[in-house]
Amino acid sequence: MAETKTAPARVNEPRSDVPPRERILAAAQDLLYRQGIRAVGVEAIAEAAHTNKMTLYRHFSSKDELVAEYLRRFAAEDEAVWDCISASHPGDPLGQLRGWVHRMAEAISDPQSRGCAIANAGVQLPEPDHPARCVIENHKRVLREHVLGLCKAAGLRDPELVADGIFLILEGARVNIQSEGHRGPACRFVALSEDMIKAHSA
After folding, report:
1. How far, in Å, CA of 9 to CA of 175, rounded?
2. How do residues 166-182 score in pLDDT, each as one tens digit?
3. Is the separation of the CB atoms in 136 and 118 below 8 Å?
4. How far, in Å, CA of 70 to CA of 159, rounded?
């Protein structure tokens, strides 16, 4: 998620004009995020999508492939956020970095949030050959590259250290809200990130 999307909207009554594949993905996005990838079976997803297992398997060869596609969509939506950040702070990499930090803070503070869907999937899917692993690893790599690029463009000292520091603070905050809620250390994400930025500013 970069990664501003938080809790996917819950699936309501599916519209009859929505194709089955889209209904299946919407149901998967909701159920897998809220309940966990291992806890949800294809039967539950098919039922929530108002279809059946046969139709689900016609569009996705396996649950693993459905999970991978769900995460690809999340990653694509996350990636699109960078264009908004750039448009909001044209020609201002430091402003873009700070803008992204504040977007992440808003996502963290969302009461519907259960953290980052892709990070959560990384914990639940340790198998290196799972089709979702490359989606997870690539998304996190690209996110770090975005942050590092802004740190470099903003002229921060030791930009790799700053990028890694902010990246790890974000990852930790997303996990922390699931154990201590939104009033725990996660609420200090902006302050900690700003400290990193200011300490390495020219």
Report:
1. 20
2. 999 999 999 898 888 77
3. yes
4. 32
DSSP letters, 90-135, are: TT-HHHHHHHHHHHHHHHHH-TT--S-HHHHHHHH---TTSTTHHH
Which positions ≥6 away from 39 have C-beta within 8 Å?
none
In angstroms, rounded to a whole number, what is the distance separating the alpha carbons of residues 194 and 74?
27
In sequence order, the 6+-apart residues with CB closer than 8 A to the CB of 96 are 85, 86, 88, 89, 150
- The torsion angles phi and psi of 30, rounded to 5 degrees, stand at -70, -55
**Contact yes or no for 25/73 (Cβ under 8 A):** yes
How many residues in total does the chain contain? 202
pTM score of the predicted model: 0.84
DSSP 13: S
Buried/exposed code over 108-145 (b: 16+ C-beta within 10 A; e: otherwise): bbeeebbbbbbbbbbebbeeeebbbbebbeebbeebbe
Question: Quick check: helix, strand or coil at residue 86?
Answer: helix
